Amino acid sequence: MTATAALPAPPDEEPADEAPPLRRTPARKRLVPYWLLLPGILWLIVFFAAPLVYQASTSLQTGSLEEGFKVTWHLATYWDALAEYWPQFVRSVAYAAVATALCLLLGYPLAYLIALKAGRWRNVLMILVIAPFFTSFLIRTLAWKTILADGGPVVGALNALHILDLTSALGITEGHRVLATPLAVVCGLTYNFLPFMVLPLYTSLERIDPRLHEAAGDLYARPVTTFRRVTFPLSMPGVVAGTLLTFIPAAGDYINAELLGSTDQKMIGNVIQSQFLRVLDYPTAAALSFILMAAILAMVTLYIRKSGTEDLV
Question: N or C: which end of the chain has fewer CB within 10 A?
């Protein structure tokens, strides 16, 4: 028998380092984010929530300016306002939708050029897009009265090309003039809100990785196919944001219809303005405002869900 050598004893294991005790964050530090949010919350409460509640109570009042208005929960005001002014609602949505579509058709090529093709001229073109904001909205709209004047060069050229005959047959102009017609109102809306379409589109297009276009070219994709399968799908967040930023204010606008249109082109914003400042029927004006807000909110929610843009849902 051979003696078996004793195996050496394993070395004593060192005790594992104990985890440091958890330190509780002081209450002051935990409240810092809420203190930073407090100014914005107060701003929203004072200038959004409180006026909204007051507007809601106004829409449920009855009375007159001489006798005073009292909250009587008169919900019929909403139905009466909608039954009387539904043509202005439809007209507002139609004008805003057409103007938004025109802004997209005009703004997308411009944003594409600035983001992907402008090179060293990019900043100059961006300044030209933003430059109208340095002028009053009212002055910009008044300028279109001069541009579309009956004796102006624009109307003269349209008459010479017999374009106004076609637009008159379509019902968007009247005779040989453009002012005081639906075309004038839509032109004003398109011009005034075009930057709201271009800027989100530019931001979305500028974020696209150029290597994706190179990869599409390496796979023998034609430029049209590259745009359809790569560029446009990746720019959808900008398309959705731009259409929302254009449609929402355009639907509630009243300056363009007031200055460029006639009584036949009044939008719901003109009715609300008239009810508040001229007729002094505050409950009807408040009810119309809430109906417009609810309608726009419903359309925007449906549009975002149907667009499938996860960044905005």
Answer: N
Looking at the DSSP bridge assignments, the partners of residue 177 are 174
Estimate the crossing angle of helix 282-307 against helix 76-112, to 10 degrees. Answer: 40
Q: How far apart are CA 181 and CA 38, in angstroms?
A: 48
pTM above 0.70, yes or no: yes
**What are the distances in angstroms from CA 117 to CA 103, 113, 308?**
20, 5, 28
Mean pLDDT check: name the lowest of 44-48, 149-153, 237-241. 149-153
Distance between CA atoms of residues 167 and 183, nearest Å: 9
Nearest in space to 176 (alpha carbons), one of 196, 198, 195, 156: 156
Mean pLDDT is lowest, of 13-17, 86-90, 115-119, for: 13-17
The predicted structure's pLDDT at residue 313 = 43
* Tokens coding 228: 């359809």
Angstrom distance (rounded) from CA 173 to CA 162:
12
Q: How far apart, in whole angstroms, are the C-alpha atoms of residue 309 and residue 300?
A: 13
Q: What is the 3-state secondary structure (H, E, C) of 216-283?
A: HHHCCCCHHHHHHHHHHHHCHHHHHHHHHHHHHHHHCCCHHHHHHCCHHHCCHHHHHHHHHHHHCCHH
Asked which of 103-112, 198-207, 208-217 is least confident by mean pLDDT, the reply is 208-217
The answer to whether the beta carbons of residues 59 and 77 sit under 8 Å apart is yes
CA distances from 34 to 31, 44, 48 (A): 5, 15, 20
Reported as a single tens digit per residue, the pLDDT across 228-272 is 999 999 999 999 999 999 999 999 999 999 999 988 899 999 999
